[in-house]
Write a structure and sequence with these properties.
Elements (H helix, E strand, L loop, with lengths): L5 E6 L12 H13 L4 E2 L3 E10 L2 E10 L7 H10 L7 E7 L7 E5 L7 H10 L5 E6 L8 H5 L5 H8 L1 H5 L3 E2 L5 E2 L18
Parallel strand pairs: 1-4, 1-5, 5-7
Antiparallel strand pairs: 2-3, 3-4, 6-7, 8-9
Helix pairs in contact: 2-3
Length: 200
Amino acid sequence: MSSAPRLLVAGLGNLPYPNTRHSLGQLVIDQLAWRTGIRLSPDREGFSGAGTVMLGGASVALTLYKSKYLMNVSGPSIAAHARKNGLPPSSVIILSDSTDHETCTVKYRLGGSANGHNGVKSLVSALGTNQFHRIRLGVGKVSSMEMSDYVMGRLSSYEKRFWTEEGVDLARLHTNHRHVPLWHARRSEISMGSVAPSRS
């Protein structure tokens, strides 16, 4: 019998600044931990927890992780955690905020450019490749605000409720027959099913 596929899901963010748009990846990690019953415990470089869960009808050995380091230099700690667990970049999934996507949407991408996201750049450098899975959590943008002020701003009450309730359902992890993670998000969809990831 083959062993369950193993995945590392890491949320990008800044631990000293929770509940901001830039720390949305870590907020979703906390919610996934609560939903799956995985307990996050501190170690030298971050918080992690592991368990075997059912995802997309398949049994998956899932590790959740968030770094203690500021986002822009968090890549080495995430890469080190993957290597410590014997996981290649193809088994790493990153949750990160995205100003290129509409608020409260989720877009999947394998590889590709960091699009100016310094947390993603840090991980690409640490892994030596961009061939890992990216789950981009849309935070949108406001033309009247400096981008840095906007992403470091606190989530609105609507955004926080969304990402701690139905937004987590919309960002549910699914696996296909090759155990490649599939994510989807249509804000109007509450009942989930497996759908192909957006490549945009």
